[in-house]
Amino acid sequence: MLKIIVFVVHSCVIVTKEGDAVALRVSxxxxxxxxxxxxxxxxxxxxxxxxxxxxxxxLESMFEMTSMVLRLSEQGVRQRYPSADEHExxxxxxxxxxxxxxxxxxxxxxxxxHL
Length: 115
Prior knowledge:
By secondary structure, the chain is an alpha+beta fold. It has four helices and three strands; from the N terminus they run βββαααα.
């Protein structure tokens, strides 16, 4: 029996293979109940719609959401630093998700010098 466990953000995907049979189980690793306000019927429709999506469609959605989060991060920087130019906005936004050493190594920009 082969058992692979992959953690994806708040979910735990467990794939088990025994002979030719493969079972997939998704369990919430988080204490949050994201669907408590959703009716079972609506949730079933949502899950079915997600199952019908192709991997390319799912990947496209992931890229769109990632882009949206980056834009929101940059907008937050613009609000906190209204006089920052676009380069500074990008650097400050990157510094929100990367450690100081990575910022210096990759971008040559030290967040500690721009407090």
